Amino acid sequence: MDGCTGLAGPEDLRSYLDFLESRGLLKRVKAEVDPVLEIPEILRRIMYRRLGAVLFENVKGHPGYRVAGNIFCDIEVVRKALGVERLEDIGWRLFEPLRGPPPLGLGEKVRSLKDVLTMGKYMPRRAGRAKFTENVLEGSEASLTKLPAFKVWPKDGGRYLTYALVHVRDPVEGVMNMGVYRVMIAGDREGVVHWQIHKRGMQAEQDAREKGENRVPAALVIGSDPGTLLTGAMPVPYPIDKHLFAGVVRGSGLPVYRLPNGVDVPANAEIVLEGYIDLEDLRQEGPYGDHFGYYDRPNRLFPTFRLERIWHRSDPIYYGSVTGKPPLEDVVIGKFAERIFLPAIQTLLPEVVDLHLPPHGVFQGMAFVSIKKRYPGHGKKVLLALMGLGQLSLTKILVVVDRDIDVQDINQVIWAVSSHVDPQRDVLVVPYSHADELDPSTPTPRYGSKLGIDATRKLPEEYGGKEWPEEVEPDPAVAEMVERRWREYGLP
User: Fold this and answer.
1) Is position 115 annotated as part of the catalytic site?
2) CA 236 to chain CA centroid, nearest Å
3) Catalytic residue selected from 34, 290, 426, 436
4) Global pTM value
5) At 5, is the pLDDT very low, low, confident or very high (cuts 50, 70, 90)?
6) Which end of the chain has the least Cβ crowding within 10 Å, N or C?
7) Please, where are the H alpha helices in 219-321?
8) Domains annotated on the chain, with CATH
């Protein structure tokens, strides 16, 4: 595959941009553009029109930098870049060895051992060198203001690093956390890290405080290969190491380089900001125009990242994403998460057939799930299970339908809700529950309610002892005759 060296996909951001350009999906902009409001507005308009990725080669106020955006412009592009037939295949790399009967005979045990050894190729591996070490800025030369960070919306609290992979090592398990948390630039060497209360970064902060630590070594990584960039935004269950999971997504172990502060970072990074999280310096962050299409309400204080040095490749490429009403680039990233975590859900809940997070549901807003229903109350059982499962536990509205309903087709879901739901019987409201921190509808931030809708056909026990009505179906003989004549006469 283009730009690959034995990997399942491009080896870094540059080869991924080459991959996009070779398929006519990358536009180069040579005119001078401003990262304050102008680039974000251009990126939104291009994404709304489905026009592909962009590389800005002349960035106002930031000579020497180029800016890439909308690189995850289409889910099929992502699939092809990662070299898989189906995105679900990535998820099955982790869970396939757990399925089926245990090995008994010698041959079966040898095959099982092969599955275990295969996992070894996904492990992170130490890199002897990294191209981003070609340049290092320290002291007064190291400034966050040198970066072409975006101001995304007019009333934002400042300029933001919008897709920095925030690296901290977990204080308890020692695994690497790598999350996409927006960082508001607060000065030359200070940034406010907005990690939400339900995310792994916040868990690391709380664990560090319990151990009596007031600073956590950290690194902010900008630009990497597509698999690693996507992994940063994935809700990987704790305590799975994020670098290990990146290897699973990439199809090959992630090469990592250890910084002087002890933090391992992807060796294929474009820019690395080395420093630490100051847990004693808490600041207000925002407002920020988020993916719901509203400005977040500043409602709590966040820790400060303190910069010690900047590492970067020569002629560095800065990657930033933008937010706003869907569908933007984050919709594609959300669809990627949906597909690769479906195997995990099916491993825990084997009755689940498919999952759909509709783009305009804004990730945590709404989810549709189809199941193979087997017993009375099965739909509600799945609703309750998903309301407490990983990232889906933040979903506000869940709809469960039968297996013959294509959840990717919203009209089929609407038909199932309209035809199969009696509100008093089939609607479940869970009050006083945890909620997505960014949800603008909750009166109390992080605390709201959930709605579950069981839109499956009801069994007699759920339907007052009666059989569910018979659905209309055409006469088979007539249907076959019409199909034959349809082809014979070439009807439209």
Assistant:
1) no
2) 9
3) 290
4) 0.93
5) very low
6) C
7) 226-232, 242-250
8) 13-319 (2.30.110.10), 349-462 (3.40.1670.10)
